[in-house]
Amino acid sequence: MPRHFLRDDDLSPAELLEVLDLADAMKADRLIRQPLTGPRAVAVIFDKPSTRTRVSFSVGIAELGGYPLVIDAQTSQLGRGEPIEDTTRVLDRQVTAIVWRTFAQERIEAMAAVSRVPVVNALTDQFHPCQILADLQTVREHKGTLAGLTFSYVGDAANNMANSYLLGGAAAGMHVRVGGPDGYHPDPAVVADAERIAATTGGSVTVTADPHAAFDGADVVATDTWVSMGQEGEQRGDVFAPFAVDVEAMSRAATDAVVLHCLPAYRGKEIAAEVIDGPQSVVWDEAENRLHAQKALLVWLLERA
């Protein structure tokens, strides 16, 4: 059976480090591994809009020697209601892996349940694990290590980024803080999973509604838009304002703290222009590292298929 990457804890802590080490090697030499030479195709399916995911997977698959078969789900039979399992059984006879950016986690789990090739979660409503691989690679580049660092994610703590940071950060042995207003906290089941992982890695997990507790002494500060895809009609700024990553908030973090944002960013809302465009920002390294981390993930999965 193939290995899939549907949520962050599909990689053990040791396997996570293997992927990150490979990502570093592939960043140093972008053509060092080409397992898709042929070219062999990888299906990259989008139910949602995308810039970074579309670009990084398309470029990465090509650099691995393959062909990125990019599919807009709304122009495929998936968009007309074909069962996920039927689409999967067609694809897995022709492609080497399937990458899917979709809605409910159950959709990608249904695909993986029948797929004979690796399935990769390129974002669901519940998790964004490829982003966290890139973020961990970025933090390690700038900090030299991951284990023992205090990683604070602030803002909408009920979204996919919060869930994935909890799992991925715990696996990396980090002290993960998730800060957001009451009513916008992560899935308790995910928190419990992260706590179990942290108990094996020396990390820890904290969920707080106190912005000061979230920022104080943090080595890494991460945020995301307050309005995720599908929530554009909601007015949510006031409740999240105390968790904005601005100059005052960053004064509470460690003096050498770095700042992450998975983009797109809205300056003056979840993050100040002075911060995202300032010296502590590693956002553009983070965006580039989607390419290297995802290439490494694909190579790692294909070697175990």
How are helices and strands ordered from N to C?
HEHEHEHEHEHEHEHEHHEHH
Q: Characterize the main sheet.
A: 5 strands, parallel
Strand order of the largest sheet: 7-6-5-8-9
- Radius of gyration, CA atoms, in whole angstroms: 19 Å
End-to-end distance = 7 Å
Shape: globular
Quaternary structure annotation: single chain
Residues in β-strands, percent: 5-15%
Helix tally equals 12
Q: Which blocks of ≥5 consecutive residues have pLDDT under 50?
A: none
Q: Could you tell me the number of beta strands?
A: 9
The level of helicity is 40-55%
Mean pLDDT comes to 96
Structural class: alpha/beta
Record keyword descriptors for this entry.
globular; 305 residues; 4-stranded parallel sheet; 41% helix; alpha/beta; 12 helices; 5-stranded parallel sheet
Summarize the structure.
The chain is an alpha/beta fold and about 300 residues long. Helix content is about 40%, strand content about 15%. The strands form two sheets. The protein has a five-stranded parallel sheet with strand order 7-6-5-8-9. The chain has a four-stranded parallel sheet with strand order 2-1-3-4, with helices on both faces.
Question: In words, what does this structure look like?
Answer:
This protein is α/β, with parallel strands linked by helices. Helix content is 41%, strand content 14%. The protein has helices spanning 13-28, 52-63, 84-91, 105-114, 129-143, 160-171, 188-201, 211-215, 237-240, 247-250, 273-276, 283-302, and strands at residues 41-46, 67-72, 97-101, 119-121, 150-154, 175-179, 204-208, 220-223, 258-261. A 5-stranded parallel β-sheet has the order 7-6-5-8-9. A 4-stranded parallel β-sheet has the order 2-1-3-4, with helices on both faces. Strand 5, helix 6 (160-171) and strand 6 form a beta-alpha-beta unit. Helix 1 (13-28) packs across helix 5 (129-143). The mean pLDDT is 96.
